[in-house]
């Protein structure tokens, strides 16, 4: 009854989804306050008050037929200009509305970008661990995902190995920084090195290689860490952005693509992407949310909310003797499993009502992902369980 | 620079889009009140007041983090249940939330449905004239569109020809009633006949054939005409619905699929469609608009707004001697061109500042489409031009 291409998806029940269902069962059995669910990346920092106020103001001020009506497939021009100017102020770029294409979140943005540029059989290089949903996006256009390794201490790209993987089928390199699942942010030097390799390979192979930067976690960077703006380092970059995390509204599906003027045949790519936005069925990003963004373009959630969690969880796990990279961004921590089979570790943790996602769900067995977009209490109260886990594995 | 599959799209500048740009030029030159633009199907009946009030109430009453947060890929259960119950009250169906899958408008709903069930090389039968965008949706999944003819007087399907086109590659029959571009509504008898043919062919060919009913214009039916609810006549039906026209909010991208329990392996198809909704990049329908729909489930725009236009335009054109089927639904009229080449007719009309879309943009040369979702004044004031056009062609 269903299309052949969908069958593998339906066979593999996602590890995260399975976790979620188990979590529900456990919450019903033990009470929600006694279940420490680190499985889901569902942002829970409060939605900034400006969001609600802006929507109400817009509804009161604007003509409803225009407000809720069709606009260009790329989105409202004033909204796109407001975003471009905000990026320019913050990152020293030189965008205008012609570089910004509003999308139904970053997931849709990635699909629009891939629909625009990827041919069947062409390769998309990703750095493992990575968000496995990318496999499905690439599969939508009959491309092939090629996994490049990262250093297992830092989760930075292994650049030597990466360069060797680039060949005459490579069309896209897809990076995600701040990273899901590791929380790592690539330094300016790393971005520069990736750009250098791509420039060199473009010349050597005589073909265009796009760098797609998936940036739903851009605003979630802690302390003084900077997230380099990738278009400044490599011309053929497309940025996919989402407000899901920066404004805590993942259900609203609002984001954008940046297609810089420096990109080869930029106007053609932009126009094609606008059409792709239409024909994949989105047509345009939701109009009221677009208008809200224009008024909230520099607003973001309270970062301290996640930062407090980050510090508590990292310090707590370190004290227990667990091994992990201190995340600099996003709201994930990627913990080394004390045993080779991280599924065993997850099962053991479940005995203490702690839910984590196995690293194999991110193409990186031997690790687990903890999403710390939870209440602070969840983290504090989970520590007793983690200590007992540490004892079980003789870590302290 | 762009994917091969996108190249034909970028080569063919859409006739409707070309019209739109010409319209802009003409409005600048002659003043907007002197341009009679019947090219765009952009709903302009006022958005019902309940929409604004509901959104404000929801923002004031609901917890923002849950309101704007992730939900199941199929949508909020309470919203889906409200829609199911509304359909049951109005059409005597027996749906519940498990049959309703919220989508980013009907365009996205069609893509979700096709992604779910269509294999490369399989055929989708459509009745010409039809919305050519269907070609792109089918092409997204490497299917093939097969055009079935309609009676050129009534635009009802030529059922004998239709039956002959069904073969062992047929996977989907896609209908659109009320119809874009003709405004025709299929009678209960026609739906029953289509269903009978499909039942017979399913048995004969030993394969499942889906009937997809694209219904963005369902609520726009004038007078006492009923739009039969297709799931009642054929089990393997999927309905794609949109609120774009019924609530005048095409920019918001909110609609749903109905996957009835009677459909073969309904649960599998529903679950696959939910996953398809995620992996094509939509993830879910915009959350605030979903919640609005639950409160506005029985609200619709003032039909008299369009009906008044319909009558004025139809009567006016008839008086001029033009030939067209009186539309019973949607906001389109499909006029027979007085000369074989309707592009010539469109060019002649432009001399009177009248913009219409050639029928070839709907796979039906020799006709033109007029979208009467305009102001009433536009229709009244256009009549002088139409009279002169009629004189030019010796129609009166």
Summarize this entry quickly:
The structure is a homodimer of 396-residue chains. By secondary structure, the first copy, chain A, is of the alpha/beta class. Helix content of chain A is 42%, strand content 13%.
CATH architecture of the largest domain in chain A: 3-Layer(aba) Sandwich
| Main beta sheet of chain A | 7 strands, mixed
Number of helices of chain A: 14
Q: Biggest interface in this structure? A: A-B, 72 and 72 residues
What is the CATH third-level topology name of the largest domain in chain A? Answer: Aspartate Aminotransferase, domain 2
Cofactor (chains A, B): pyridoxal 5'-phosphate
Organism (chains A, B): Lentihominibacter faecis
Domain Aminotransferase class I/classII large (chains A, B): 34-373
Enzyme class (chains A, B): transferase
């Amino acid at each position: 009854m269903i299309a052949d291409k969908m069958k593998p998806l339906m066979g593999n029940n996602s590890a995260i989804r399975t976790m979620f269902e188990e979590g529900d069962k456990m919450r019903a059995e033990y009470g929600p306050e006694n279940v420490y669910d680190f499985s889901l990346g569902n942002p829970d920092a409060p939605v900034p008050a400006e969001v609600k106020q802006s929507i109400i103001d817009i509804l009161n001020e604007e003509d409803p037929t225009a407000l809720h009506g069709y606009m260009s497939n790329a989105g409202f021009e004033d909204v796109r200009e407001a975003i471009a100017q905000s990026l320019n102020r913050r990152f020293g770029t030189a965008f205008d509305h012609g570089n910004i294409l509003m999308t139904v979140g970053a997931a849709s943005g990635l699909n629009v970008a891939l629909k625009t540029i990827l041919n069947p059989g062409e390769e998309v290089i990703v750095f493992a661990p990575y968000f496995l949903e990318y496999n499905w996006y690439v599969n939508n256009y009959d491309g092939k995902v090629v996994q490049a390794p990262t250093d297992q201490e830092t989760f930075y790209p292994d650049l030597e190995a990466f360069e060797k993987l680039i060949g005459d089928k490579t069309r896209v390199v897809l990076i995600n920084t701040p990273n899901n699942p590791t929380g790592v942010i690539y330094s300016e030097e790393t971005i520069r090195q990736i750009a250098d390799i791509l420039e060199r390979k473009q010349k050597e192979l005589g073909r265009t290689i796009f760098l797609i930067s998936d940036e739903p976690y851009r605003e979630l960077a802690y302390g003084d860490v900077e997230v380099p703006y990738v278009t400044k380092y490599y011309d053929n970059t497309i940025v996919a952005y989402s407000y899901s995390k920066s404004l805590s509204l993942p259900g609203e599906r609002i984001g954008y693509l940046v297609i810089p003027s420096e990109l080869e045949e930029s106007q053609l790519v932009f126009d094609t992407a606008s059409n792709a936005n239409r024909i994949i069925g989105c047509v345009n990003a939701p109009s009221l949310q677009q208008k809200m963004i224009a008024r909230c373009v520099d607003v973001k959630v309270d970062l301290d909310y996640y930062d407090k969690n980050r510090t508590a969880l990292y310090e707590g796990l370190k004290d227990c003797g667990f091994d992990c990279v201190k995340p600099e961004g996003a709201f994930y921590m990627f913990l080394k499993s004390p045993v080779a089979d991280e599924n065993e570790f997850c099962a053991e943790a479940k005995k203490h009502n702690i839910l984590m996602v196995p690293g194999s769900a991110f193409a990186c067995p031997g690790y687990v992902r903890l999403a710390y977009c939870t209440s602070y209490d969840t983290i504090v109260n989970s520590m007793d369980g983690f200590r007992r886990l540490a004892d079980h594995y003789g870590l302290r």
